[in-house]
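Changelog-adjacent note: as of this version, every example in the card shows the full chain rather than a window. The one below runs 167 residues end to end.
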Amino acid sequence: MQAPTDEAVRSARRLVQVKMALDDRVGACNQMVDQLMQDRQQQDEQILQVAAPALGIQTENMLALGTLCERHSELNGRLLRLQNEQQAFQRTIGDIRVAMEASRFLTVGSPDEAAVVTDLWINRGWRGLAYVCHNNHTADTTQALQGPNAPGVPVQELEDDHPANQG
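Full-length structure tokens:
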């Protein structure tokens, strides 16, 4: 098995740095979600306090209740957007983990090949990288596709996914 080139090592380090930055962003996103959940709970409590004398609601109480409901709705929307962003970050972190896992199996022989592998990781994901590796039929990539730590994409499925095999 060949030793990784300097370019491959730099690519792996860059992936680790990106993963750490995304972990930080996910942490910040989680803090914002927690804060919004606390705000939401406070809003719920305020709504209950305003709505307590439900039978004798006065005009100002109705206005306050309407304002609280609007704020509650706004916070729910922000919470949903943050949760979607958090899921996107987690998917990206998952993609980086797959790429880092693949890097343990793959070696590259030149900076050009390292650039191609990095491009496949970033732009086409594991499936694109695995298909190219499978078509190269090298011992290292065969092990990467079928080894005990392979990400679980069967070779046959890769072949079935190739555009030439689509009906």
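Structural remarks: The chain has a mean pLDDT of 66.
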